[in-house]
Amino acid sequence: MLVEKHRDYLFRTIYSVLKDQKEAEDATQEVFIKIYTSLPKYENQGFKTWITRIAVNHAIDMRRKKQRRKEEMAEELESHIGGSRADNVELEVIKRERQKLVQQRLKEVPANYRDVIYGFYIQEKSYHEMASEQNVQVKTIEMKLYRARLWIKTHWKEEDFL
User: By Cβ atoms counted within 10 A, which residue in 27, 45, 139, 150 is the most buried?
Assistant: First the structure.
């Protein structure tokens, strides 16, 4: 009698959270089991509100589990796509060679630009940190970095780093 009376209502409630018919059907059955096992705890205060709360909480839990599974599958897929250990070592070597090349080429950049490039991109300092270290205005750091980027664009070619 409990199932017949509230089946459609609980299904619609759960479906509104999960947005998947099959999952909502399964969840509705699970919710009825939870309601039945929790009946001794019911305190005679708004039965429909009580079963709705159980249904919504269960649906939210299912949605969270589904999201976690997606994230775990994505991480697993990334690890498989990442390739073998030899591929990872090769990529690491290439990355280090590029870093060395950038460090060498950075010596070509005029000194006043080199400082801001090194501070911002290599040491990952903020404009404010660099400004206080150099005892200048933040706007000065912004302008130096802008001009440094222009200098790099005109003097360096992307092919040199491939």
Answer: 27
Q: In 3D, which of 128, 122, 151 has the Cα closest to residue 141?
A: 128
Shortest CA distance to 121 belongs to which of 137, 136, 102?
102
pLDDT, one tens digit per residue, over 90-122 is 777 877 887 777 777 788 888 888 888 888 877
Residue 13: how many other CB atoms lie within 10 Å = 20
Q: What is the pTM of this model?
A: 0.47
Question: 97 is written with which tokens?
Answer: 């060679």
- Long-range contacts made by residues 102-109, C-beta under 8 angstroms, separation at least 24? 102/161, 105/156, 105/160, 108/155, 109/148, 109/151, 109/152
**How many other CB atoms are there within 10 angstroms of residue 19's CB atom?**
10
Q: Would you give the distance in Å from CA 67 to the centre of its chain?
A: 12
